[in-house]
Predict the structure.
Amino acid sequence: MNNNSSYGGLHVEARILVEEHQTPLLCFYLDKESNEMKLIADSESQRKVKESEQFEKLEFMLKCTLNEKKKLTFYDDCTLDQCNQQDPILLPLVCYDRLPTEILKAVFEFLGPEDLKTLLLVSKTWKSVADNPLLWTGFGLPRKCRNSKELFQEFFEGSLSLKLQYLELGQFDFKFDDHYFERFMALSLSCIKITTDIDLSNVSNELLATLVNNCKVCSISDAFLVPKKFGALLKVLFKKMCMGTKIKSLKLEQTELTSIPPDVLSEACKNLTSISFDYVEISSDQIKAIFKSLKMDANVLIKIDESDGINTFDIERLDSIFDRLTGFSFYGEPLDGQLRRWMDILDNSCKLKNLELLEVDVRQIPPQLLARVMTKVERLNLSFSEGASPQQLKEVFKRIVKSDSKVKHIELDSMNLRLISPELFAEAVNKLESFYYGSCKVSESQVLEMFRIMSLGTNLKNLGTCCPESGYSLDKMEYIELVDPD
């Protein structure tokens, strides 16, 4: 459009939206019938535009100048070059189909499956880019398909089913058999998760094991509820893994492995890059066999719960493999002297990225040793059965402040943090990226100093009494009402 009448301001306001607010505005116009501004843009741009004052200004201008439309000169691609108007003001014409496919792919990577489904319908160019399987990582079976056989079958009759990357076998309202599993066998799944929420009694273990072995990531949990079915499945699964598998990451949760021969486990796990045992019942010989063949650079996470007195994991065997773990979670009380041995091992050689110690008594661990180990990992979750000593807490927080500390995320519970000076507490917390302190005791001066340091500069991204998944709110923090809003 040209610069006649008051429409000249439209370009100014639109440019503010595009350049200053970083809004990829596509189209806006005034609907004559409803007398309302209509906007064609992606959902994020719509939100930004409608929250800005420029949107109201544009709407006002369009309504006020609607009667002056005869004064406007419009241009299209055919007449633009022939235009004799002096310095017409135009918004840039962009054809997104002409963008290099590499750029389109980089943009599409920020979108989820729901948005990608829409992009498939835009143009041939966009469809060719959006069809890339890597963009559909995490795309799982729609919830409605779990409710009825009819909706399940209807989904698999469409081409969109071929883009499934993630399959969770759990919480279906109907019973599966081999016929349904044949639908899954035609897919190129990357990740599969099996839980006890699904009835697989009519599915052959051979078929199920074949499906699992064709995935890169596998997670199986039976919660010790149906060991007969899952035990038979695991036997077939590990035998097939010995003959060749695509599985690179395996997570077993609350499962029993004692019936699997150690040599079979050793052969099946030798090519894994990541393995996780969450409260798994396994023997000492099986642990030895797995770690004998497992790659030295493999990520290994072990979770042990000794709180109920039932030994499902030979914790004495941990001494020989502790320096190879990348994640470790322990709930309960170790054997006499064992915690100290673990600390010494980790102090000398530590690959751990995640460390979780719950209801553990650390009072016998020297403060400096405890501090060195605690700051060698990236993520800490600590809850001690007996309160840590003042010297232990001070040494840990002093160590966090030092430049060689690797810890970024800390979750604490049931500790008296008032023993730490407000200055040390505030400086250490602001060095972290996330800090959750549960039911720990903190003082008014600690909270005020923490926010004062935060206002000057901080690494913190998350702060509260518990992690976001638990629905924390800063409003619930003690003494938060005393903090200066500015």
Summary: Residues 1-11, 68-93 have pLDDT under 50 and may be disordered. DSSP finds 18 helices and 14 strands in the chain. The longest strand covers residues 299-305. The first helix runs from residue 8 to 20.
